[in-house]
Specification:
The chain has about 90 residues and is mainly alpha-helical. The chain has one domain. It contains 3 helices and 2 strands. Strands 1-2 form a two-stranded antiparallel ribbon.
Length: about 90
């Protein structure tokens, strides 16, 4: 009877092999989030240093002195009302 239980366990890992692929895809999506979080932190530092909010993302990016990766295709960076950098459709 114990051997039957082992056979069932060996079947489950092969059928559960799909969820790790989904987890990997989710991890890729989560990996993009720290970039926006880091940019938002840089924005807050910029505001503290300059004692004001930049007029737009372009002013921030031109004067921040940080490397800003290009946005994904069809998207652009904007400064949200909550002082966070967001991606929106062009």
């Amino acid at each position: 009877m114990f051997a039957a239980g082992c056979g069932k366990n060996s079947e489950k890992p092969s059928s559960s092999a799909t969820p790790p692929l989904q987890t990997t895809a989710t991890a890729t999506n989560v990996a993009a989030a720290p970039d926006l979080m880091e940019l938002s932190i840089d924005l807050r530092r910029w505001c503290a240093r300059n004692h004001r909010v930049p007029a737009n993302f372009e002013e921030f990016s031109a004067t921040a002195g940080v490397d800003i990766p290009p946005p994904p295709a069809g998207k652009k960076y904007v400064i949200g009302g909550n002082m966070q950098i967001n991606l929106v459709a062009r």
